[in-house]
Amino acid sequence: MTEIKIQKNVLSKNDELAAELRRDFARKGVLVLNMLSSPGSGKTTLLEKTARALAGKLRIAAIEGDLQTERDADRIRAAGVRAVQINTGRGCHLDANMIANILPKLEVAELDVLFIENVGNLVCPAAFDLGEDFAVLLMSVTEGDDKPAKYPTAFLKADLLVLNKLDLQPYTNFDIERFRGDVARVKPSLPMLQVSCTTEQGLESWFQWIERKTKAKRERPRR
Ligand SMILES: Nc1nc2c(ncn2[C@@H]2O[C@H](COP(=O)(O)OP(=O)(O)O)[C@@H](O)[C@H]2O)c(=O)[nH]1
Ligand SMILES: [Mg+2]
């Protein structure tokens, strides 16, 4: 009983701060995307491709979350976009407080899109609101098609599902129709894009999704 109560308190404190962040992002007119996935699904690769494709059109920055190292922030900077790294040590997710603390390092009012690459994990990040407009869940075909049924909370939180590494599908037993069926059972309204960051197949739809949401955010803040 006590454990549940403490967890509830932590989450409600996080939610209050996340709501404040969301209001601040809305005032500044920046679209914020919380990127969730297992380690290795391709979050940083997708952000590198996105940075290179959209940098001329949109003002972009990224917050990178990992237990250790500055490596992902370095990769994003090498793609020409401002990036800051949060190291969580032993922590399995980012929380609203970490985001609030690092925001002064970014000129958020000067941005169109802020990507938050969460710690790779399909469990804890699903429980923590970061004040984002949308949660984007990235999966890859090398992870198995049974994950929607096994990890429903991440799918329930997601506003967009991106299925990556399509180029590897012939070498796996990943069944896209079975996957789609399980996704529909968990969250029938969840839209899915199919991409390969390596071959760039399908990335255009992802870029267009970002551009549409950025435009909508500028015209009418979502929350
Ligand atoms: N074959 C293939 N490999 C990919 C693709 N996207 C990413 N990768 C590779 O998957 C590995 C993990 O990618 P990374 O972006 O670091 O994943 P993250 O941990 O989710 O940030 C790297 O070796 C990438 O080059 C893809 O579409 N196809
Ligand atoms: Mg990464």
Task: Describe the structure in your own words.
The chain is of the alpha/beta class and 223 residues long. The protein contains eight helices and seven strands. The chain has helices at 2-28, 43-54, 71-78, 96-102, 147-150, 152-157, 176-186, 203-219; strands at residues 31-36, 60-66, 82-87, 113-117, 134-140, 160-164, 192-194. A seven-stranded parallel sheet has the order 3-2-4-1-5-6-7, with helices on both faces. Bound molecules: guanosine-5'-diphosphate and magnesium ion. Magnesium ion binds next to α2.
Structural topology:
Elements lengths: L1 H27 L2 E6 L6 H12 L5 E7 L4 H8 L3 E6 L8 H7 L10 E5 L16 E7 L6 H4 L1 H6 L2 E5 L11 H11 L5 E3 L8 H17 L4
The structure holds guanosine-5'-diphosphate and magnesium ion.
List keywords for this structure.
223 residues, alpha/beta, seven-stranded parallel beta sheet, 41% helix, binds guanosine-5'-diphosphate, binds magnesium ion
